[in-house]
Every structure is written in structure tokens, then in C-alpha cells.
Amino acid sequence: QVQLVESGGGLVQSGGSLRLSCGASGSIRLIDVWGWYRQAPGKQRELVASITRGSISDYADSVKGRFTIARDNAQNTVYLQMNSLEPEDTAVYYCNAASLRGNVRFDYWGQGTQVTVSS
User: Fold this and answer.
1) Beta strand pairing status for 57-59 and 77-82?
2) What is the mean pLDDT of residues 43-70?
């Protein structure tokens, strides 16, 4: 089992920045991919950014050049630095940890943190 706790959300004006943190505990050694997802009201949850065990990162087109995902192995923490925030970035952001075992994927989720960007 893996436990995830997010922090760092809040209210920010358009153009501002926030840094989300995701503290992990438990069987972290089993995790292959770390990710940040978001879900806006009335919309499906979408992948924002991910980083693999080998530190390969990927981003949704809508956040490329503005968001950066990073992992601190010593602190068992994954970060999402969000710059140049836009009202469209308003959503609940969820930390995700995935373990890949053959064709089976095991997902672990945090409780979510609200990010609100005012225009």
C-alpha cells in the first residue's frame, strides 16, 4: 500500500504561481510512475504531468512550458510547480502513484487539493 498526501493548493490570481507537494509513504519502492491529475467541475479527471522511475517526464499540452513535475527521492515527495496560472487551471489536483505489474496497473490516489485561479 502507498499513502499520498497533497498540499499547497489555494487561491491565486491569473499569472501567479503555486507549488503542489505530494508526500508519499508505504511501499514506495513499488511505484513506477508518479503523476498529477486534475478534475474541474463537470469535467473528467485528466493527466497533467507524470514522471517515471527513470525521471522521464511528460505533460499535457495545455500546461507545457508552464508546469514542472519533480521528484525528491530523499524526501519521498513529488512536486508540481505551476507558473503563469490561468483561470482554466482551476480544479482539484490529485497526486497519483502507479505500480505496473505486467498488464496490471495499481493506482494510488491522494485526497486532492483545490487550486483556484481568479481572473
Assistant:
1) unpaired
2) 97
